[in-house]
Design brief:
The chain is mainly alpha-helical. It has a domain of 82 residues. Helices cover 48% and strands 0% of the residues. The longest helix is centred in the middle third of the chain and has 25 residues. It starts with 13 loop residues before the first helix and ends in a 10-residue tail after the last helix.
């Protein structure tokens, strides 16, 4: 193992990790402040936070791909993301042109409210 790599010591909670710019307890100091209340749709914000966690865990695994605990965590978050994304898209419509509920009508998403227009109705 590379001696320059930091050891995995666990994760911050979802909101704290999203706000601080890293999900890891011991990696990188906080570098920004984000006002969570500016986003009106909590469901969309949760999807963004979980997506962030998946990316952060993936970056960790780029250097330490044999860490079984982090592999388990990334799989859990990916499954959670897929479930919440499906619920969100069923309620508000597709998030992207590749949304799961578009079927053959790829331009359906253009006529739905944009994700940031949904204020958690």
């Amino acid at each position: 193992m590379n001696s320059n790599l930091q050891e995995f010591t666990g994760l911050k909670d979802l909101k704290e990790g999203f706000l601080s710019g890293t999900i890891f307890n011991n990696i990188v100091d906080e570098y920004k402040e984000f006002d969570y209340t500016l986003v009106g749709n909590q469901e969309l914000l949760n999807l963004q936070a979980i997506s962030f966690v998946i990316l952060d865990l993936n970056l960790f695994l780029d250097n330490q791909s044999d860490d079984k605990e982090v592999l388990k965590l990334i799989n859990e978050y990916v499954n959670k993301y897929k479930k919440l994304k499906m619920q969100y898209e069923n309620k508000y419509g597709p998030l992207t042109v590749t949304g799961d509920n578009l079927g053959d009508n790829y331009f359906k998403w253009v006529h739905s409210p944009w994700p940031w227009e949904n204020k958690g109705q």
